[in-house]
Amino acid sequence: MVPLNWYILLSAAIFAIGVFGFLSRRNVIIMFMSIELMLNAVNISLISFSQYIQDLRGQILAFFIIAVAAAEAAIGLAIVIALFRNKATAHVDEVHEMQG
Amino acid sequence: MELQFYHVLIPTLPLIGFLINILLGKEVTRYKAHWPAVLSIAGSWVCALFTLRDVMAGKIIDADLYTWMVSGTFKVSVGFLIDPLTAVMLIVVTTCGTLIHIYAVGYMHGDTGYYRFFAYLNLFCFFMLMLVMGNNFLLLYLGWEGVGLCSYFLIGYFFHKKAAADAGKKAFIVNRFGDFGFGLGVFMVFLTFGTLHYADVFSNVSMIAGQTVNFLGFNVDLPTLIALLLFCGAIGKSAQIPLHVWLPDAMEGPTPVSALIHAATMVTAGVFMVARCNPIFNLSEVAMSTVGIIGALTMFFAATIAIVQNDIKRIIAYSTCSHLGYMFIACGMGAYAAGIFHLYTHAFFKALLFLAAGSVIHAVHTNNIQEMGGLKKYLPITYAVFVIGGLSAGGFPGLSGFFSKDEIIWSAYAAHSPVGKFVWVLGLAGAFFTPFYTFRLIFLTFHGKNRGAHHGSEHGHGGGHDSHGAHQGEHHIHESPKVMTIPLMFLALGAVAAGWVGIPPLLGGGAHFAEFLKPVVGHPEFHASHAEEWGVMALSTSLVVIGLGLSAFLYLRQTDLPKRIAQQFSFLYKVLYNKYYVDELYNYTIIKPTLWIAQKVLVGVTDAKIIEGIVNGVPGAIGQFSQKLRKIQTGLTQHYAIIMAAGAVFVIIIAIFLR
After folding, report:
1. Is B575 helix (H, G, I), strand (E, B) or coil?
2. pLDDT of residue B84
3. Is A26 on the interface with B (CB under 8 A)?
4. Which ipTM did the prediction report?
5. What is the 3-state secondary structure (H, E, C) of B368-408?
6. Which residue from A92, B396, B472, B493 has the fewest beta carbons nearer than 10 Å?
7. What are the boundaries of each domain within chain A?
């Protein structure tokens, strides 16, 4: 049986990759993918803890997160399309109307 | 006798009339606004007649309606004192008020502010009646300020005209000076007597005789202080020197207002107040002399100014100042009854003169008598009543003005004091000037050739033009409508006969008027023979005749002579024409410095530096801080993400280490 530590290390590694991707890339689509990575890293740790303490509520929460992430991705992609239509770009650097 | 409902109705009816017109005037009563106004004041008049009947039956009423305010020992109630003095004032106010209201129906016809005019006129009557009926100093003060307010409203009635708006402000501000003293006087009365009720004050008045009080570091005689402070109010309200400057300017108001407020009633409130407070004034020789001297000086200066003025209403306004001076002379001599008697006759002949002048203005649309002349044949009724009013004002024997003025001059002579002699001489000079300037006015207006601005009597229709004729097309001089001439006739009747109730015993009368007022104001003891009385009367009468004759000579016969005299004595003429430069003096000593302080100190420093400094400084500082703060918001998603991530790491570190 795979020990809990490995799951947690995997989860942390994926989360760190997601954070790095989100911060370093400028393309909105890539940034979305990074967000999905972070969410799934969390899901992994949730499920592994759920397995470890034999409580199904963790897995239910993971499903819940997947559902929310799907909705979020749908809305996010819609925004990206709208953004692209208006700005003809998917680069966040070029979108800074909110600058103070 | 208990307070009757009709006593209460006297001031209440005009108040109701005011409320109807001010609330419904714009929508409902509009050009019928005179109905509630005239009916209410006429109702007051009827009630005043009933009241006069009660008082003549010897009843004096002093009753409280309800308690107005209580604070510690300070207690004021709304209550009425109805005695002979009040009764006389009620008759004067309601009679003149009713006639002038009726006259105004014709005079103000078609004006856009018709309802507003009658509403204010009614409100004025309410306050004036409260002033004369109140049984304590606070009600007197209420009425006093109320009539001042209405005076302001009505002088500035044509508020779109700058001169009228300015005149209203001037009247109000000048009266502030007097009313400040008056207010202090009322405070002193309360401080001294612990009550403001007339009856309580006047019954205890003897206890303050000879007392002194520390005032601004000086020991001052208490009765003198109170009397002089109260008299300050009278100086302002009754347009005496040095606060007389507002009254001539007040002529910017509609003529019925000049007649009611600035001739018959409001300006006489000062005389009424002095007569009402006679127990206090009687205690102070100094105050009495001051009243007499100020009255005499005002009478003399105003009369001399009136000689050279050209504005028909201003001449009568100076005449009013002058006659008010006569009333104060009488009060200063202790002959309050004579002062009130002159107040009473003056109300009729002066209201008559003003309304007749209004009728002239109504016909020719100018105030300048140099542009009139020869109006006798176009305005026969106005001419007739004007002459009657002028004779009465000038003190022509047999008419109202003669009896009252003669009594004042006599009381000044009979006082046998240096002050009495001084005011007597000035009074005699006034007796000469009054008919002179009044008939100068009449001769220039009604006699001779028309000097109208556009054409004279050579015109086919023989009429002077309205000086603003251009906008009205052909406008021919015609007599005023009946609604204006009938009140004039009634006032003319008063100007002739009102004085007959006070014919002195010397001329076979009973001096009923003085007898009637005796319970309130007493009667001075004169020690003089009949021969002297005849002599003084003959002297003043001959001066009246000389004044009249000289006026006729200069303005009917030798019509070019006045101009030559004016050139000969150009310095004197200029001084008189510019009203002794009092307005200029005030302009340079008071108005300019005040404006300078207002503009340089208050606007320039307090307002611009301090207030605006705070108002602009606080948001300025906040703005600059936020200019710096907004830099944080870069609009770059990555920046936000880094801050979020750093924040999360920070929170986690805290969570771990602070566990």
Report:
1. helix
2. 93
3. yes
4. 0.82
5. EHHHCCCHHHCCHHHHHHHHHHHHHHHCCCCCHHHHHHHHH
6. B472
7. 26-91
pLDDT digits over B80-123, tens only?
A: 999 999 999 999 999 999 999 999 999 988 888 889 999 999 99
CA distance A1 to chain B (A): 30
Each residue's pLDDT tens digit, B112-151: 888 999 999 999 999 999 999 999 999 999 999 999 999 9
* Nearest residue of B to residue A96, measured between CA atoms: B635
DSSP string, chain A: ---HHHHHHHHHHHHHHHHHHHHH--BHHHHHHHHHHHHHHHHHHHHHHHHHHT-THHHHHHHHHHHHHHHHHHHHHHHHHHHHHHHS--BGGG--TT--
Give the C-alpha separation, A36 to B460, whole Å.
Answer: 107
Locate the chain A residue with the closest alpha carbon to B633. Answer: A100
Chain B partners of A93 at a C-beta cutoff of 8 Å?
A: 636
Contacts of B645 in chain A (CB under 8 A): 19, 23
- What values do phi and psi take at B64, rounded to 5? -90, 140
Instruction: Sort out which chain A residues have CB atoms less than 8 A from B636's CB and list them.
Output: 92-93, 96, 99
DSSP state of B610: I
- How many Cβ atoms sit within 10 Å of the Cβ of residue B607? 15
Six-digit token string for B590: 């008071």
> For residues B301 and B319, is the Cβ–Cβ distance under 8 A?
no
Tell the CATH topology of A26-91: Helix Hairpins (1.10.287)
3-state secondary structure at position B424 = helix
The shortest CB-CB distance from A100 to any of B631, B638, B641 is to: B631
Calpha distance B467→B652 (Å, rounded): 94
Reading the block at residue B298, the tokens are 């005002």
Q: Which two tokens stand for residue A10?
A: 């995997």
Structure confidence by residue, pLDDT tens digits, B242-286? 899 999 999 988 999 999 998 889 999 999 999 999 999 999 889
What's the pLDDT tens digit per position in B613-654? 899 999 999 999 999 988 888 878 888 888 999 999 999 999
pLDDT at B529: 80
